[in-house]
Amino acid sequence: xxxxxxxxxxxxxxxxxxxxxxxxxxxxxxxxxxxxxxxxxxxxxxxxxxxxxxxxxxxxxxxxxxxxxxxxxxxxxxxxxxxxxxxxxxxxxxxxxxxxxxxxxxxxxxxxxxxxxxxxxxxxxxxxxxxxxxxxxxxxxxxxxxxxxxxxxxxxxxxxxxxxxxxxxxxxxxxxxxxxxxxxxxxxxxxxxxxxxxxxxxxx
Length: 204
Known about the structure:
By secondary structure, this protein is mainly α. It has five helices and two strands; from the N terminus they run H-E-H-H-H-H-E.
């Protein structure tokens, strides 16, 4: 059967036709090199070094001249050093340790005495002091029966060294004994009064 032109198609009878979508006008892409086109930032070529920006003169920097003419701010003063103090008391002195220390000190003092006497005798003998004094003493003590006193032979170097050594030995014995006895006496006194108090300070 042939369908007439006025009859609707099969399956579409009584259904309204869908509206046709109107085509939108295509937006024109901005032309290259146009006024409205944004220029892309140019990237430096690979391997090319970056050019440093020129340094601004001091006058162009805000406050540049003032910064040069302005004196440096004074540094704060360093804090004063504090010291810690401690009070200690010598309650007892060991007599044995006192005896050993005093013996060594007295021996050193005796050796120094002998060396000093020897050096002094050599200097005086080189200056002719003993010969001059010995001649004066010999003339003053001379008599018709015999010669005067020979001071130069009496003050010879062996006699001086012997006399000085005897004095040094006596000094060692007396100093050691007196120091040991002083330790005993101090211990007895410290038992009654508590001993000598010392104040020690330590700087931080």
